[in-house]
Amino acid sequence: MFEAAISSLIIISTSISFLFVSLPQKSYFHSLYISNSLSDNESISNHLYILTRRPHIAGSEANAEAAAYVLSTLTSFNIPSHIASYHTALTYPESRSLLLIRPPPDPPINFSLQQETYEGDPYADVASQVQPTFHGYAKSGTAVGPVVYVNYGRVEDYLTLKEMGVNVSGNVALARYGKIYRGDIVENAYAEGATGVLIFTDRKDYGGGGGDAKWFPDEKWMPPSGVQVGSVYNGAGDPTTPGWPSTEDCERLSDEQVVDMGDVPLIPSLPISWADGDAIIRSIDGKVAGDDWQGGKGAPVYRVGPGPGIVNLTYKGKQVISRIENVIGIIEGAEEPDRFVILGNHRDAWTFGAADPNSGTACLLEVAERLYKLQKKGWKPRRTIILCNWDAEEYGLIGSTEWVEENRQMLASRVVAYLNVDVAVAGAGFAAATPQLDELLVQAAKQVLDPDNSSQSIYDSWIRSTNNPLIERLGGGGSDYAAFVQHIGVPAADIAFGGGYPVYHSMYDDFIWMSKFGDPMFERHVAVASLWGLVALKLADDEVLPFNYLTYALELQKSAEDLKGEVLNGGVTLVPLLKSINDLEKAAIKINDERKALMESKGWTSMWKDDRKVRELNDRLMMAERAFTDREGLPGRPWYKHLIYAPSKHNDYGSKSFLG
């Protein structure tokens, strides 16, 4: 009996030894993932072409078809997938008009507000499916009055106007887009007493600078009739269900209650083209604006007004409870299935969405295909990987926010990290993240080749392209990471090549623009998929999570120094804050030492008993970010619960530390 037991143990031991010898290490699969043998730029191009054949705004039939395509593609890779649907309040335009009354003898101009197709435009037959230019959640109404030019509509721009003796109150503000979120442009104008807002994309910023510069389809720049549409909602998630999921029969706030929440605009607004903006600028007299307020080459002199040009702006929108569809795919972890690494990208677009967001969607499907190929070679993730394709992001991060609100408790206890890609490809660039992921992102970037120069890595390209190579932070509300970081406190990263691009949110963000100017060979898409997936694999497979909170402590020390200058004369002491940051630094050093000791002790004799220690260490690393959240949220902004990172009060895209 005893001999039989010994024999059995020998057989089991031999089998385990054989298993560990015969199965490749996780690092082998990670290297294979980023190899040329698994990547496929032709497949990415095909995904993008299919996803962008029609305009697919949230709530539309075309966007539901795009969801079905993503679902079927994930399913074809043997990834169990499903639709998570919500019923959310979205707005669409019913009518709008814009009349400019110029001083005599110039006749009035009744603007067409149309984005024009061009000769040979392959999308001319579906251009009528693009929604008329509008702002999501804009207030319906009419604004009539002299025009005041307010530059980018920032708080500091209004201070400049006051110094010039210009009063915006009772007038219509004309702002050029850039620097801050358009919803804040409208909110700032309202605070200054404006009756309405027009936002134009200045040719200086989006049209190649002016002069002899050509535009799409000849060059990458915004055409004269191009309009950047977008949302002016300053919240996150469905405005009618703040803090709870928008299910079909759920309770909702009334229109009046939504207004009282303070996140929807209180004056009407319209986005307009640079050609229309130019015509209005020419109708404005008054003091000459400063040099940094002026337009590009060949532009008229920019004056601030008011008037004498008078505009009559009318907008009427309709609110509809629309079905939106998140697509969720799940690759279950073999050893820790209750720990999640989540990859997310949104699918809905204001128009065709080739750069924003479907360059990211095509990359998500490429990641899924490569993971499928790894599985066929024997790889299984240690932790569960969840692939999410969000809906209604453009309106206000709605699909991701509703999903997080519905699954808040489970996600807060199980998510290791969230990795976002929105606009995957628009120019040269890298990533933003919560600080404990910095080291991981840098290491991954050193392993992925620069798509524009294969003799160097993405990391090499990044540090050579800037004098101050810093990974940005995720305090802004610019994409779907917001609910994960700012609402439940999950470590996160946002990966992209580039920031803004000229045809942003216009009818010209189509497959032709991407294939001619954005990424003709789709090699940048391949690189984004490589970087995104490699970071995910490290988070899913590494026995001990690759987090470094020492970076976080050093970042907070810098932020505290900045804060010290702001509160210097306010009678506020930062001694407790600085002590807490010092304690965090000591704890970060200690857990790094624990990690090192644990990994050095791993061997045949200790590999089983150490599993509990590894799990406990990982949970501390995973949950540390949650400790930066507060149940009550920020003062006056209860949805934002992260005490370190949140959107700046006057710029939703901007990030500020210690908002509370």
TrEMBL record:
PA domain mapped to chain residues: 145-229
Start and end residues of each Peptidase M28 domain: 326-511
Q: Which UniProt keywords apply?
A: Glycoprotein
Which residues belong to any copy of the Transferrin receptor-like dimerisation domain?
573-658
Keyword Plastid belongs to the record: no
Q: Which CDD domains match?
A: M28_PSMA_like, PA_GCPII_like
Q: Could you tell me which Gene3D superfamilies the record lists for this protein?
A: 3.50.30.30, Transferrin receptor-like, dimerisation domain, Zn peptidases
Extract the InterPro entries matched here: PA_dom_sf, PA_domain, Peptidase_M28, Peptidase_M28B, TFR-like_dimer_dom, TFR-like_dimer_dom_sf
What family, per the record? Belongs to the peptidase M28 family. M28B subfamily.
Protein name per its UniProtKB record: Glutamate carboxypeptidase LAMP1
